[in-house]
Amino acid sequence: MDYAEKISTHYAHGNLLAAIKAGLEVQGVKAENASVEDLGPVDEFHIGGRVASAHFLNQLEIKPSQTILDVGCGLGGAARFLAKTYGAKVVGVDLTAEYVETGQALCEWVGLSDRIELHHESVLSLPFEAVRFDGAFMMHVGMNIQDKQTLTAEVSRVLKPGARFGIYDIMKTNDEELIYPVPWSNTSETSWLARPEDYQAVLKANGFANVKENNRRAFAMEFFKKMKAAGDAAEGPPPLGLHVLMKQSSAEKIPNMVANLAANRISPIEMIAVKGD
To answer: Which residue of 7, 170, 205, 232 is most buried, as measured by CB atoms within 10 A?
Structure first.
């Protein structure tokens, strides 16, 4: 099994669309009547979910006339939120075929398939012409990519001069070994965490400037504290949530990630960079 297959296999669910539909039905929502808000708890696979997306994407200064690239789009949750909130068009790419297929169906459910297109492709070889996009973003993607140089070069290639590139990734913040498994990897074999300064360097090497950095560790700790409290009060998880994506493994992966955060081994960090002329 090659590297791409390992990553895709890690994230594949097997029956994801049906699981999401069942979760909606428990809440009394039919698939064809679902909204972007209804899907939020399950389709934004990153720390902080919809709240984090709003905080992050608002810094990209997105306009309705723009076309934005979603690098490692997953189920397209952030893409749908972006299209609905800012009115822009979104093109997403992801390595996991089931995520792309499920994401396209979810776009149809919420009536956004005319503004969003998702592709089953590698972010290391983007199938787009140069200087096509008005902006780009990626959320919790770089942890699975060793070759961040090629990743950043590809994003730079397809962006117009002056375009913003937003990154919201989990980054390494000390030298301690992580506790595995975590949501993005079962072992260190497919986990390629880098330090913020490594991201800064590769961005600058590929023509990006004015890199703004924001550590969201405090927000993340509070997010998981509230999530645990809500789960304890309800005596179990809600019908839709990250546990739907990770199935039984969420019971181990989420606490491990929180332990890594608490030990300051990792932190979710935002970076906003601007492509030079």
So the answer is: 170
